[in-house]
Amino acid sequence: MSEALALFPLHTVLLPWNSLPLKIFEPRYSDLVAECLRDNRPFGIVLIRDGEETDREPELFRTGTRARIVDWQNREDGLLGIRVLGDRRFRILEYRPDDQGLLRAEVELLPPEPACEIPDAYRYMQELLLHIHPQARDKQADEDFNRILFQLAFLLPLDNGLKQQLLEIDDCQERAAVLHAELIRLGVIQYVKPD
Questions:
Q1: DSSP H or E run through 183
Q2: What's the alpha-carbon Rg for the chain, to the nearest Å?
Q3: Angstrom distance (rounded) from CA 171 to CA 7
Q4: Would you say residue 191 has pLDDT above 80?
Q5: φ, ψ (nearest 5 deg) of residue 9
Q6: How is 65-91 classified by DSSP, letter by letter?
Q7: Closest-CA residue to 90 (of 45, 59, 41)
Q8: Is residue 193 very low, low, confident or very high in pLDDT (cuts 50, 70, 90)?
Q9: According to the model, what pLDDT value does residue 190 have?
Q10: What is the DSSP letter of 11?
Q11: Distance (Å, whole) CA 45 – CA 48
Q12: Which of 47, 136, 155, 168 is found 20 to 30 A from 162 (Cα to Cα)?
């Protein structure tokens, strides 16, 4: 299923089930926020492969996360602040700038993430998530492994390239294996209490 989506390119990866605060200072993005709030529409956040956030045509990765505005406020510095929540992955089919320099894309929405049980070998990831983000217990189904993987990957100080790789993987078990290998490399696992 394809849909038209305005894009917000960043040097940050937004993963599903995570929220991200954004400062809006460019007129093209102020217009986008107004449009999304008025029409209750989402937009897409996608990682920049090459270029800057202020460029009119940066080179983008092709997989991103659809985002919905869940809060906004006028900041003390005069800028608009918004908080978005990632809800669904997408792949860009094509994109181009409009007259205001906002990137407009035709995207393919990827299937929603199915609920996935936590394998015993990866149960420590749930404990690690609750250790670094105790509020996660209130915000997620405790046994939804896809949510745990995406929230853990988003909260940990991982390289954007790895976060993008995890976003692009379609299979829960494969995503878990990649994150597990990185946690071993970082030495995180040795600090997690075994079952």
A1: helix 172-186
A2: 17
A3: 25
A4: no
A5: -75, 135
A6: EEEEEEEEEE-TTS-EEEEEEEEEEEE
A7: 45
A8: very low
A9: 62
A10: S
A11: 10
A12: 136
Q: What is the DSSP string of 143-177?
A: T-HHHHHHHHHHHS---HHHHHHHHH---HHHHHH
Summarised one tens digit per residue, pLDDT across range 17-37 is 999 999 998 889 999 999 999
Tokens representing residue 15 in the block: 């993963």
Q: Specify the DSSP class assigned to residue 140.
A: S
Tokens 């809060």 locate to 71
Q: Which domains does the chain have, with CATH numbers?
A: 2-109 (2.30.130.40), 120-191 (1.20.58)
pLDDT of 194 > 60? The answer is no
For residue 155, the one-letter residue type is L
44 three-class SS: strand
Judge contact between 125 and 149, C-beta under 8 A: yes
Note the pTM of the prediction, 2 decimals: 0.89
What is the pLDDT, as a whole number, of residue 143?
75
Residues in Cβ contact with 143 at an 8 Å cutoff, skipping those fewer than 6 apart: 115, 117, 118
